[in-house]
Write a structure and sequence with these properties.
This protein is mainly alpha-helical and 59 residues long. Helix content is 51%, strand content 0%. It is built from one helix and no strands. The longest helix has 30 residues, at 2-31. The termini are far apart. This is Sodium:dicarboxylate symporter.
Length: 59
């Protein structure tokens, strides 16, 4: 029975690990003023220099 649910539990552990790493990286970056949470995707918008896929000028 354990062999049947272990892949699912492994995915949940990995998801938890990645989410924790992202949260800690964001907090440390904010403490060191390396992350600007008022611009870009954090603010729910697109920055001035960002290219949106629908606006790309690729030939």
């Amino acid at each position: 029975m354990i062999a049947g649910i272990d892949p699912l539990l492994d995915r949940l552990r990995t998801m938890n690990n990645v989410a924790g790493d992202l949260a800690v990286s964001t907090v440390v970056g904010k403490w060191n003023d390396a992350v600007d949470l008022t611009a870009g995707v954090w603010a729910g918008g697109v920055g001035d220099g960002d290219v949106v896929a629908s606006e790309s000028t690729a030939d």
